[in-house]
Amino acid sequence: MTLIKLRQKLFLLLFALLSVGLVLPTYVINRTIDTQVKTEITNSLLSHNKAFELYSRSSNLDIGIAALNFSKQTGLRVTLIAKDGKVIAESDSNIVLNKMDNHLNRPEVQNLKNMDYGVSVRYSNTLKKDFIYVARMIEANDVSYIRLAQTMDFAQTLIDLRTTNQNRIVIIVAAILFVFVFFVDKWINNPIKKIVNVAQEIKAGKWDRRADILSNDEIGELAENINQLAEKIENDLNKMKKMSDVRSEFLTNVTHELKTPISSITGYLETLLNGALNDENVNTVFLKRSLKNSHRLEALVTDLVDISRIETGEMKIDLTPINILPIIEEIVNEAKLRIKKRQDIEIEIVNHSKNDIMVNSNSDRIRQVFDNLISNAIRYSERGKISIVIEDDKEEYLFFVSDTGSGINEESLSRIFERFYRTEDARTKFRKGTGLGLPIVKHIIEAHNSSINVDSIEGKGTTFSFALMKS
Ligand SMILES: Nc1ncnc2c1ncn2[C@@H]1O[C@H](COP(=O)(O)OP(=O)(O)O)[C@@H](O)[C@H]1O
Ligand SMILES: [Mg+2]
Fold it and tell me: How far is residue 105's CA from residue 119's CA, in Å, rounded to a whole number?
């Protein structure tokens, strides 16, 4: 589709306005006036024609002399024509009679056949001027037609004057319209063009470009809408970029976390194959270390699977009424078994409620929560006490998992729920752990329409807490 620019359309409109609004009416009016003038002159010539007949009949003068006299008095040209078309008398002294051709075929004489007078406007070759002729037939001896004529000089002067003025008006109106178009162009086209330019820049990827809002009208509204659109696109893009950054960081972390235990296992196995297998001092140690790394890999992959199921929304957490206390007790017992060698750690459950701890929950998932929190408490405490406290609070039960361990510094506290985040301390001192436990816990608690809190004092201990709705 060819683009007809607004400016071109405006000029076309201007042209149409000028021709339809000004030139056409002027033409019609002029035509009407011209006809009116011609009728007026014709009537006057007709009365003079009749007056001349009366005058020539009533005076005893020769009709040729009468014609001269009449012409002198009225300034009109008088021509007398015989029945055969021969000109008998002519008032204009510039004309030589016998050089005049037959006048029967003159239009004004021809017209007479149907009417009692004939009119014609034309250029007189003899006198080199426009004339209006009015001819009448009369009953006289030798003269059959009286023709009176008047030059169009006066009418022409008026017409010329009129044309000049009309041309002036057309020029002035055209100039006004041009100025009008100029301003419309300035007020409408230019701002629109600017918006189009900005839109094109945005389209080309300059998302931060914004259109100036220059007016409080539809164009301003358009600019504002384009700006809002660009704003939204920019925000969405930033969000997507952030997401993709998080994703690639996640991937880097995953590869790194997986690579470490795999390299260790590979190293041990290679050493064993290269002869250490027969060295009884190291072979069991190396195999045990390999197994440990294998467990670590397994734990990592389990957490990764959970995280990815959370991401894809595949991890469905259906809530049903369950008694949560036996689950906690089971986990605590398992934990106690695991740490039975460590005499310096104590685990206790403090239940302040007298009722069964019935909550809307999912046993597998809530098991995962307590398992993670208790494992962390054990892992990040060198000695001391770990307490799982249950409190009854109206509609909810409150759960606290506290330890008297290393605690978490303030800076790390805001980041421990991020995937793969581990404190510097945790990284160096405890090789176990993936940094995926707390993100999973957070997600599960949120799926219970709740949230998890953490309070910690470095060197003193940490408390994680959350609430679950009673069922
Ligand atoms: N009870 C706790 N005491 C001290 N630090 C903790 C405790 N729980 C979690 N953290 C810190 O938060 C980090 C993230 O925990 P988590 O997501 O469970 O990962 P992981 O236990 O695999 O390291 C831990 O690495 C540790 O630095
Ligand atoms: Mg953990």
Answer: 13
